[in-house]
Amino acid sequence: MTTTSSPVLDRIRVGSAPDSWGVWFPDDPQQVPWTRFLDEVSEAGYEWIELGPYGYLPTDPLRLVDELARRSLKVSAGTVFTALHRGPGVWDATWEHVAEVAELTKAMGARHLVVIPSFWRDDKTAELIESSELTGEQWGHLAGGMERLAHEVRERYGLDIMVHPHADTHIDTEEHVVRFLDSTDSDLVNLCLDTGHYAYCGGDSVKLIKTYGERIGYLHLKQVDPDILADVVANQVPFGPAVRRGVMCEPPRGVPELPPVLAAAQDLGVDLFAIVEQDMYPCPPDQPLPIAQRTRRFLRGCGA
Predict the structure, then answer these.
(1) What Pfam families does its record include (predicted)?
(2) Which of 5, 90, 165, 200 has its CA 20 to 30 A from that of 207?
(3) So where are the chain's domains?
(4) Torsion of CA 234, 237, 241, 246, to 10 degrees
């Protein structure tokens, strides 16, 4: 009798994030307390986490180091939102926020800063706040601003930025992602490829990894429910309400299939974080842990 074994994904470092516990904001009564998140992410079998929204976890480095050490957890990255397409006028406010997140990220021993472009809808009301398409001038501001941000973050904090294509932002579809990559310096600006967001926006993660592998520096593992997504697309449902409908689902129930994505990432021959994120804001407090445990078992079965 012959048996098949999962590939050894020894270049992939799996973790999770507050997002998988329904956390989108620094403080929100619908979210689980940070202590419960830390307890449960450790219980689920993860050793790597992201900081999530700045202010959700303690921002005092000594306290956070102690809280993480007691649970055998380590930080892979911090996260910031930016609106650099709006031009030089937003730089000072952007840098003020980025600097505080970068400082904490560095203090945790992490090397990455995940940068998410600002939404063109309000993140709570889903109201349209600006055009979903950038002008040529705005694309120039976005590309130039990201390069400047990458340079400053590297010089001052020793961190590399990973730009996160995201639904309801200006870096979303394959067309927009490729335009952004072609407009930026690969020595400075690379991607956090979120498999769920990219599928949500019609992209093929395996194709992107194989075509632009040298630009993929970080992964978020996520799946979308194809039936719910079809309805979301047909009815132009904003991302927030789509999440509440359950458009993001636990693997292996959705798309893209994660084993081919992980195999393509392994083939790049570099160490990559692959952080599980299942958007569930808001969700019942007892929902995340069982999903996280099942997802960790699934990923181990894939070799990660």
Answers:
(1) AP_endonuc_2
(2) 5
(3) 12-301
(4) 20
H helices present in the chain, as ranges: 34-43, 61-69, 91-107, 136-157, 174-182, 195-200, 205-211, 226-234, 239-244, 258-266, 288-301
Strand partners, 249: 223
| Mean pLDDT computed over 268-283 | 97
Residue type, 237: V
Percent of the chain with pLDDT over 70: 98
Q: What's the CATH fold of domain 12-301?
A: TIM Barrel (3.20.20)
Is the entire prediction scored with pTM above 0.90? yes
Average pLDDT score over residue span 44-56? 98
pLDDT for the residue 104: 98
* Cα–Cα distance for residue pair 139/153, rounded to 1 Å: 21
Instruction: Report whether 237 contacts 12 (CB < 8 A).
Output: no
Measured between alpha carbons, how far is 111 from 50 in angstroms, rounded to an integer? 11
For residue 301, the Cα-to-chain-centroid distance in whole angstroms is: 22
Q: Are 81 and 113 in contact (CB under 8 A)?
A: no
Residue 33: CB atoms within 10 A of its CB come to 11
